[in-house]
Amino acid sequence: MESFRFAHPEYFYLLLVIPVFVVLFILSRLNRLRSLRLFGDRALIAQLMPSVSGNRPFIKFTLWMLALAFIIGALAQPQFGSKLVTSKRKGVELIIALDVSNSMMAEDIKPNRLERAKRAIAKLTERLRNDKIGLIVFAGQAYVQLPITTDYVSAKLFLDAINTSIVPVQGTAIGAAIQMAMKSFTPEFTGSKAVIVITDGENHEDDAVGAAKEAQEKKIIVHTIGMGLPQGAPIPVGGTGSRDFLKDKQNNIVVTKLDENMLTQIATAGGGTYIRANNAEVGLNNLFNEIEKMEKSELNSRDYSEYNDQFPLFILLALILILIDFMILDRKNKWLRNFRLFGNQK
């Protein structure tokens, strides 16, 4: 069953201005009548000004108010029935693998490595248009946080929920994250695919270079971003800004350092680029430019129905009423005066 609706009914509040205009118009007409009475006898004045019409101002005002009502109706966007629309988009598939191990809480990158990475990813989603994005989190194990999608709003919501406790097993299994990413792409998609690994690079769990090489053989590009500075930083215990730091068994403060050599090897094996983050920028914008150069392929094509807008009809009716108003002169036409098109034109 076809239905009728207004997409923006809140615009109908503008109709409240019409009674205001009506009151102002009535007051102006009453004031005019009082002025004419003071000037002299109404019948005599009518004979002295035969071309002045008493009805036409009311007719013209009514036309303008109807036109205004139709314009407001058009702003409310009337919709009736539906139409089929084919959506075709071209883009790439992109999966971001984000390290959530405890070392990502180090504050050599402000406010800390993890928070800075999350902010950069959020800004990246704002630049995406037709590309698909997925999100994997990893520490000692890897998990899919967000399946690959074009829903960038959901991507930001899932991103906000990420913290170091989201993965129960500590460590930095970059290889597992790359393996998980390879399985997370759309199976039937044959276009360009890329993985961006954001980590401090302290990989002690698996063969990350081998996983990157395997991805490259499957035509999946692996980029890496190093979060941290070469001199390293202690790991706060108890949250950002804490002055208590993680210590080893000998009660020495653990300093986590960026392993650039490992991340460079991973990017080289994956046919991608390694970028080191700093306090000025993370580097995702530079990688986005590289991704934009990749060949865009059709992601999907689907038909869906949406409401058919009817506001042009309301605009047309408003224009017709305004045109009629322009055709009606304020004064009587001396050639048409005897036809009395608008009744007894006093």
Give a structural overview:
It is a single chain. The chain is an alpha/beta fold. The chain has helices spanning 17-39, 42-48, 56-75, 113-127, 152-160, 174-184, 208-217, 260-269, 284-292, 311-327, and strands at residues 4-6, 78-91, 93-99, 132-138, 142-149, 193-199, 220-226, 233-234, 255-256, 271-276, 297-309. It is built from 10 helices and 11 strands. It has a 6-stranded mixed beta sheet, with helices on both faces. Strand 3, helix 4 and strand 4 form a beta-alpha-beta unit. Helix 3 packs antiparallel against helix 10, helix 4 (113-127) packs antiparallel against helix 5 and helix 7 (208-217) runs parallel beside helix 8 (260-269). The radius of gyration is 35 Å and the shape is elongated.
Based on the model shown, name its key terms.
346 residues; alpha/beta; three-stranded antiparallel β-sheet; 11 strands; 38% helix; elongated
**Fraction of helical residues:** 25-40%
Helix/strand order, N-terminal first: EHHHEEHEEHHEHEEEHEHEH
SS field, number of helical segments? 10
Q: Mind summarizing the main beta sheet?
A: 6 strands, mixed
Strand content: 15-25%
Give the spatial strand order of the biggest sheet. 5-4-3-6-7-10
Based on Cα principal axes, name the global outline.
Answer: elongated
Residue windows where pLDDT falls under 50 for at least 5 positions: 341-346
- What is the tally of beta strands? 11
Span between N and C termini? 52 Å
pLDDT averaged residue by residue: 83
Provide the gyration radius in Å: 35 Å
Strand-pairing-aware structural class: alpha/beta
Brief overview, please?
The protein is α/β, with parallel strands linked by helices and 346 residues long. The protein is 38% helix and 22% strand.
